[in-house]
């Protein structure tokens, strides 16, 4: 029996190495990876620029703590500011930590501006913001909250896309609205760009903050550096992680100067956040993602993959009900159990991820090319044929 806590339903696969869009098991079997460690290995496996950056830093300095200046942290923060709406950045180790920082900063903004009673956030049904007590409560999903006592009482959930419900939920204690531009765990449900614009206008009207969770959809995943850019609407606070480290644990909370100015010394902290190793890799990721043409490549590959998936849906409409998502953050809503679909795809040596609403997530690395997309679609087709064959055999 493994000594590892059994909190994951793991497959029996164990991988020994990775090469670009592929993973190789300890037995030498080669899999096409359209899971990317749940949208984390944004530049694929063993990307030479990331390997070089990490190796060089590992030979110099690993950790000093935030008691001292970390030049590479300052550099990465400045680059994120220059490429976004933000003026200030706090570095953490994960998406959940980045969202926690966003929640704290939103509350403190109001407290420091004479309204300490404003601490609640409006959130959306089906959301996922992390596994800490606060972020679980923000997500509000019963399956995550069960067995952990009363949820943190600071969140008011409304249906996604219902601006009137949002307005009705805003009261004297409301500090802001927290939303994912595309729900990953929640079923690859994309928020309409108009809805994001309406939320921005509503927050401005009510004097509250718009807080975005771009942990999964940020860092180029949709073909823009951040998904909200498609809406032409900016937040006050935003959490990012996953792809920012390309596989190394990195999270960040970006915020405007108005919010950042209230987060003074001692108001928040992280022992490992922004350490030299993480910052070296984060800067290397931005080196690639911000190269001219790279985001255009993501958009082009995303469009090609989505078009191919729509064709597969039409051909296998007994298996696939709907294609969802944007860029290289796509999902298949299935008519068979999504776990069955994931297993059938794994049998074809294609790795994917389940999501809510019976969806299978397709999250290829951002470096994916036409050859890998074509191969993935061949394997999806074969998986659908196998599932139909199994259904006929059981009839």
Summarize the structure.
With 395 residues, this protein is an alpha/beta fold. It is built from 13 helices and 17 strands.
Description:
This protein is 38% helix and 18% strand. It is an alpha/beta fold and 395 residues long. The strands form 4 sheets. A 7-stranded mixed β-sheet has the order 4-12-11-10-7-5-6, with helices on both faces. The chain has a 4-stranded mixed β-sheet with strand order 1-2-3-15. β1 (15-19) and β2 (22-25) form a beta hairpin. The mean pLDDT is 96.
Q: What's the structural blueprint in terms of helices and strands?
A:
Elements: E1 15-19, E2 22-25, E3 30-33, H1 36-39, H2 48-58, H3 71-82, E4 88-92, H4 95-112, E5 120-124, H5 133-139, H6 142-145, E6 155-158, H7 163-169, E7 174-179, E8 182-183, E9 189-190, H8 193-206, E10 209-213, E11 237-240, E12 251-255, H9 257-260, H10 276-289, H11 294-315, E13 320-326, E14 329-334, H12 338-347, E15 350-351, E16 353-355, E17 359-362, H13 370-394
Parallel strand pairs: 3-15, 5-6, 5-7, 7-10, 10-11
Antiparallel strand pairs: 1-2, 2-3, 4-12, 8-9, 11-12, 13-14, 14-17, 16-17
Helix pairs in contact: 2-10, 3-10, 11-13, 12-13
